[in-house]
Amino acid sequence: MRRTLLLTVLLLAGCSSAGGPYPSLQPRAAEEIDPRLQPVRPVNERPVSAALASQLAALVDQARGGQSAFEPAMAEAERLAGAAGAPQSESWITAQEALSAAIAARKPTALAAADIDALGASALQTHGGIAPNDLRAIEAAAAQVAAIARGQTDRIDALRKRLGS
What is the CATH number of the domain that holds 127? Predict the structure, then answer.
């Protein structure tokens, strides 16, 4: 029994350490914040930067300009496809060439979509993130350009089917 008592005393002595201020067991300030509460406002609520808004507006205008260039080229391709004969005939080849011209007329729209994506990627890479309002502006511009591009793609696909290519 003496041996057990001596061993217990030695073990307890080994658990204690000498000196130094001990940390308080009171709750810390961060522990008093309820994690279920939402922040009062987002971290970065600044408005869209003027430079970004200007760039996005220019890119949407570029896509709309591309649509106005695409429209007559596509109308011509559709007109020629309506008069096209059998595949590999002269009229079919002319319609295919007109379709290629319509596809080439999509370039401003495709470049605008790519440039909008590049603006977002550049902001992520440069700043490590995108402010919420900037992100919404980029997404809105991308959606407008995507709608234009989708309309062009649908018409091209329909004409390709019609020509059997």
Answer: 1.10.132
d(CA 164, CA 87): 8
User: Which residues does 135 contact at the CB level (< 8 Å), separation at least 6?
Assistant: 120
Using an 8 Å Cβ cutoff, are 63 and 123 in contact?
no
Residue 17 placed within a domain: no
Which residue shows structure tokens 């808004």? 53
Q: Please report whether residue 124 resides in a domain.
A: yes
Q: How far apart are CA 146 and CA 116, in angstroms?
A: 10
Tokens of 107: 């370039």
Q: Measure the CA angle with vertex 94, ends 66 and 156; round to 5°.
A: 40
- pLDDT tens, the chain, 165 aa long: 777 876 777 666 666 666 667 777 787 777 777 777 776 665 667 888 899 999 999 999 999 999 999 999 999 999 999 988 888 899 999 999 999 999 999 999 999 999 999 998 988 888 787 888 899 999 999 999 999 999 999 999 999 999 887
Distances from the Cα of 67 to the Cαs of 10, 88, 117, in angstroms?
87, 29, 19
Can you tell me the distance from the alpha carbon of 66 to that of 7, in angstroms, rounded to the nearest whole number? Answer: 88
Count of the separate structural domains present in the chain: 1
Q: What global pTM score does this model have?
A: 0.69
